Every structure is written in C-alpha cells, then in structure tokens.
C-alpha cells in the first residue's frame, strides 16, 4: 500500500499552519487518520498536535545564538534545512513505516528553499523512495491577490515551486473567509484566470515599455501552458475544505484501491462545486 503526503508550502503569512490545522480537523471528522509534521525550524506556535517536529532536531534560535556560526534569521533557517537534509534518518525514524499513512508536512515559507536551493527537492525524492505519493499544496493569501500585479507575482512563486520540485501541485487561495462580498466576487476571476485580460489590466498601469513587454511575455507563457489555477479555501466552510481535499485526493490517487471514480465526471463535479461555492457566498 502506498503512503500519501501533502507538502504544504507558501510565503510567510499565507496560512500554512492554519491550513494544516483545518485539514486535520476536517479529516478527523471524516474518520480519516491524518498526521502533521512541522518542518519549519523557526516555528513558534501552532494549534495542532504533531507526530514529528524539526525543532527537536535543530532550531533557528540555537543556530543564531551560536557564536561560531553567526547567522541571521534567513541564513540560520537555510543552515537548519541543509542540516535536516543531511539527517533524513531522523525523519524516517519519526515517521516509522505504516501502510496508508497520510501526512501533512508544514514547510517553511522562505521562497529560496524552492527556487535555488536543493533541500526541498531532496526531501521530495526521499519521500518518494519511502513510497509516498507527494502532492505540493501551494498557498497564497487571497487578500494579497486582488490586484493583477500581485496576482502575477503569486503565480510566479507557485510556478517556481512547481518547476523546482517536479511534483503534482494544487494552488490555493487562503483566507477567503476574511474577504468582503465585493472582494469575493472580484477574486473569482483570478481562480481560473484569463491571462490576456491580466495583460490589459497590468500594461494600462505600466509606463515603461520594457516592463510592458516583460509582463506580456510572462502572461502569455502562463496562458499558453495553462499551468496555474487556484482553488478557494475558506476555513469556515466545510464544502470549500472538501473541494480542496477532493482535488488533492485525485492528484495523489488516494483510496484508488477502495473505489473507482470516473475521472471526467469527477472533474466536472469538482468544477461545479467551485462555481456553487461562489454563487452561495457572493449572494449571501
């Protein structure tokens, strides 16, 4: 039997720990056994029980206080993650080996870990060797994504992680419960975006021809390959949580030995659920 993993990623403040806590509670309500592993050596508080905590291996504060190292916060975190990559045996011992494991890995938010450092890629490869089916879950704060410039920035961050890790990835807009009705209606267009309309919105503001050309190229690339779309995540709405979980389950083929799902019909059902979510919440 395979094992399953969500690699929960995203910028600092995007709601990774809240996502893990919410998803853990949701799965427990469904009778599904899910565990959480904290991989952020700079974490302070989180509202969920963990089966393993990287801070038991190494902690950023200890590294920063070491006079022989003299690292700042970012350098200390990178050092911790590289030390972790050299000690995957600690993680293996912490996880044990139980068939049908389903684990959420709450990851650090520093984008350089996914863009030009090999640590997270090494983690993915190690998990795959341990027979995990891994899905990347990339979070962005919906309050940050309501403008076209910021949206394009969020897409590039998600795309960087996807290309670097080379695993299936679900992209999520978090904190939908904090948006006003007007903002929810506005942000719906960003979930499955028309990049050419984004080009018009962005280039109308830009004064520099050079940046206009760059923006058009980026938007065109994203649109041509259709590589990034987002799902809404409202922690106060069970239907929203379930939509996200269904997408992830399909991606990692969770429970495929238990029941057969028609892929095409299932995809149509999920899209309909997303549309229904917005109709219900915008019209409230």
TrEMBL record:
GO terms for molecular function: GTP binding; GTPase activity. This is GPN-loop GTPase 3. Binds to RNA polymerase II (RNAPII). The gene is Gpn3. The keyword GTP-binding applies. It comes from Odontophorus gujanensis (marbled wood quail). It comes from the Eukaryota. Small GTPase required for proper localization of RNA polymerase II (RNAPII). May act at an RNAP assembly step prior to nuclear import. Small GTPase required for proper nuclear import of RNA polymerase II and III (RNAPII and RNAPIII). May act at an RNAP assembly step prior to nuclear import. Coiled coil: none annotated. Belongs to the GPN-loop GTPase family. SUPFAM superfamilies: P-loop containing nucleoside triphosphate hydrolases.
